């Protein structure tokens, strides 16, 4: 069963990054511009955010085996449909289907492990499950570029089909079917308010860039999203069992960490989308070469994780996160200096430095957010945290795509065939947004230090 859950986690995390290096090839095949393909990435990550709150409840109500089987089946079917898409609209719709299945793979699989293994074996079992999930995003860009080179972009989806078929069969054989007879009633009203708010803000931010919405429509959508989030807050105060209790925000480290994750991850979510596009559309790299260039980011990120605990113990969370957030912003802004004449060694160093500080940022933010939840708020807080992570990734791509389109239209030196100035301006803005989010971490008490208690390893990626 561990191998089954690990494989499902690997499939889900792989598809969050494997598409990025294939976007220009997809655009050429579907007759679209490469800079208008962000909806392919947004559809998947936003659907994941929308489905995360309901996945655990479904597993409790219907049983882990039935829901996990359905998740693999829907994910595999969505992958097959994506590979057979003949237009951008079709591809976006099938990515939503794929995201519905992918969103349930990790939470339901993690729940199955929790209910199968005794407490003393839970952490080792979950660590085993988490490792393939951490590998997926690392090899995704390179694997995507390699598949485009030797075959076509369709194969980044088709490789999921045989794995999914085997996974469906294995689920019936190895997955224990457990459910919770005392499952509380699902907070439908709160869920709908959050879903409408998340979709409205994403469409509003992407409306001018890709959907060509009028300014008035964008403004209405922004007001709608704000109204939905405020309405959820009022609803959560009165509801006996809200989807996410507002009491979680009384935990200082959780509230600061959650808000910091939301805004700092906008830049971090934009970079896996922007860098492969810069390399291919702006600097003339092939898809495979762009994928290989992402390896220094992954390697430096894995190496840097060992430093975080020492830095937090010595300097505390506030000083470490404020300083590192500014460094991440500067690393992002440094890509605004990219040019075709930049030496290869310097570009590799630049990518490695970004991977290093970005990895430390993720680990520090995540441990800060989860460290003081305790047993009572762990489930609800962890679910809300996962939702915010996926939402910020979606918003990152949305913001990056909108800025690229805007700068291509307003900068005098930027055209559809010469987009490097638009990339430069976008990287600079993304860096400023990220560095500015350091103000959130400055609200922490300076004496908060030490490592976090043991939490789910899969949440530390």
Automatic annotation (TrEMBL):
Residues 1-449 form the Major facilitator superfamily (MFS) profile domain. The chain crosses the membrane at residues 37-59, 66-86, 92-113, 125-147, 153-174, 186-205, 217-237, 249-267, 273-299, 320-338, 344-364, 384-410, 422-444. Its main location: membrane. It is a multi-pass membrane protein. It holds the Pfam family MFS_1. It is found in: Cell membrane. Keywords: Cell membrane, Membrane, Transmembrane, Transmembrane helix, Transport. PROSITE patterns: MFS. SUPFAM superfamilies: MFS general substrate transporter. PANTHER family: BLR6921 PROTEIN (PTHR42718:SF46), MAJOR FACILITATOR SUPERFAMILY MULTIDRUG TRANSPORTER MFSC (PTHR42718). This is Multidrug transporter subunit MdtD. It comes from Paraburkholderia kururiensis. The gene is mdtD.
